[in-house]
């Protein structure tokens, strides 16, 4: 139980954290990874370079400070982060390291304003917050290992099949090397893939949504190859998977994780919206509804640049043709001449509220969406403008949590 004085001091620092949070967390990561480079085996290097991890941590620290007297209020965020931590292999021994450098960063950035009293209050508060995470994650590790077909940490899987889905997306069908059962999962969840790339000192871990329904003897991930450009670095892991990993190769995989999942206890209509490779968890949800809830109405809306980069188009079209409760719509922002000739899409441009209202019968549905942040931001604001209830809006960020 934190002392009243500690609560008072920590809450009083909220405006300062809001103002200097990104600066503090940027300095924190630089110091911590400089002194503990072994943690680069866990942290996503690309998110560090792009500043996404620093922003996500700053937001989490700010939220914890604002609710330090009622941590129950941030439990949804704690659970979401804990899922990622468990799938990455974050352990209790990592928390004291994080705490040490976070306090040092607060002191360095705030200077004389960070008095001994403030630092001590934050030390107590950090320990309380860390204890919550450690407890939640311990339960998740236990569940992951003790469930039927489950395991701890990472397990060897063989690439059973490698299937090209579009010019930029390839699916990998993964079966356990030991031939034993694999854990089931909830549609929308992801696995972590750990790879050692020749010439790289540290391992790389990336999280990929499972792109098929549960209950199979394999996991499927569908990976977009992130090619570099003048303003964007190429994806180290995605290019390695596409260019070097072949059928028969071994990948190290975590047990499924994640709290962005289809609610199968409901029978309400479902609208699945995806942009680009954001369709992967949506395909898992669609396949699951078709297999487990065949009478449930589902509208599948996918946005892509054009047909060349549109994965699994034929699969979704076939389901829509065969199932009266499944409808599918396609939006291309830059259709090819062939797309225009064949008329194989429903809208040119971007998904907007005006179009949504013509293809979705009612806002009384559950909306799930995933894709690039600008796409998700646009969808979120369109749904709010339409009056869709907050509890009916569900979305997933690829990577550190952002703001819509």
TrEMBL record:
* Site feature: Involved in heme-bound ligand stabilization and O-O bond activation: 29
Q: How is the cofactor bound?
A: Binds 1 FAD per subunit. Binds 1 heme b (iron(II)-protoporphyrin IX) group per subunit.
FAD-binding FR-type domain ranges (all copies): 152-263
Cite the residue spans of the region called Reductase.
Answer: 149-404
The UniProt entry annotates the active site at 95, 137
Query: Which amino acid positions bind NADP(+), per UniProt?
Result: 276-281
Q: Where does heme b bind?
A: 85
Name the cofactor(s) required for activity, per the record. FAD; heme b
Identify the enzyme class.
oxidoreductase
The annotated site for Influences the redox potential of the prosthetic heme and FAD groups falls at 84, 396
Q: What is its EC number?
A: 1.14.12.17
Q: Where is the Globin domain positioned along the sequence? A: 1-138
- HAMAP family of this UniProt entry? Hmp (MF_01252)
Q: What does this protein do?
A: Is involved in NO detoxification in an aerobic process, termed nitric oxide dioxygenase (NOD) reaction that utilizes O(2) and NAD(P)H to convert NO to nitrate, which protects the bacterium from various noxious nitrogen compounds. Therefore, plays a central role in the inducible response to nitrosative stress.
Q: What is known of its domains?
A: Consists of two distinct domains; an N-terminal heme-containing oxygen-binding domain and a C-terminal reductase domain with binding sites for FAD and NAD(P)H.
> Under what name is this protein listed?
Flavohemoprotein
Upper taxonomic classification of the species?
Bacteria, Bacillati, Bacillota, Bacilli, Bacillales
The coding gene here is: hmp
């Amino acid at each position: 139980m934190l002392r009243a004085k500690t609560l008072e001091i920590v809450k009083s620092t909220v405006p300062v954290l809001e103002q200097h949070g990104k600066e503090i967390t940027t300095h924190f990561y630089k110091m911590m990874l400089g002194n503990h480079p072994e943690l680069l085996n866990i942290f996503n290097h690309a998110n560090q370079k792009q500043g996404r991890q620093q922003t996500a941590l700053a937001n989490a620290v700010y939220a914890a400070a604002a609710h330090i007297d009622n941590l129950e209020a941030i439990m949804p965020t704690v659970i979401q982060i804990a899922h990622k931590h468990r799938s990455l292999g974050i352990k209790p021994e990592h928390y004291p390291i994080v705490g040490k450098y976070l306090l040092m960063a607060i002191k360095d950035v705030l200077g004389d304003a960070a008095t001994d009293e403030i630092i001590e209050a934050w030390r107590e508060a950090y320990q309380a917050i860390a204890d919550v995470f450690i407890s939640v994650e311990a339960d998740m590790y236990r569940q992951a290992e003790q469930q039927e077909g489950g395991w701890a940490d990472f397990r060897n899987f063989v690439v059973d099949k490698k299937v090209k889905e579009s010019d930029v997306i390839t699916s990998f069908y993964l079966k356990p090397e030991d031939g034993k059962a694999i854990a089931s999962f909830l549609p929308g969840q992801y696995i972590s893939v750990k790879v050692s790339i020749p010439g790289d000192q540290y391992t790389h871990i990336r999280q990929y949504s499972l792109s098929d329904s549960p209950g199979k003897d394999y996991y499927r991930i569908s990976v977009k190859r992130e090619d570099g450009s003048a303003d964007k670095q190429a994806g180290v892991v995605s290019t390695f998977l596409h260019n070097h990993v072949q059928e028969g190769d071994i990948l190290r995989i975590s047990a499924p994780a994640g709290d962005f999942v289809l609610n199968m206890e409901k029978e309400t209509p479902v609208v699945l919206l995806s942009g680009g490779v954001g369709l992967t968890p949506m395909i898992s949800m669609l396949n699951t509804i078709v297999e487990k809830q065949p009478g449930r109405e589902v509208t599948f809306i996918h946005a892509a640049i054009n047909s060349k980069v549109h994965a699994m188009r034929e699969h979704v079209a076939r389901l829509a043709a065969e199932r009266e409760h499944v409808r599918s719509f396609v939006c291309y922002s830059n259709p090819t001449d062939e797309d225009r000739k064949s008329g194989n899409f429903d809208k040119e441009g971007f998904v907007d509220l005006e179009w949504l209202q013509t293809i979705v019968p009612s806002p009384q549905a559950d909306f799930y969406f995933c894709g690039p942040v600008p796409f998700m931001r646009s969808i979120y604001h369109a749904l709010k403008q339409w009056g869709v209830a907050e509890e009916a809006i569900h979305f997933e960020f690829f990577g550190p949590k952002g703001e819509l």
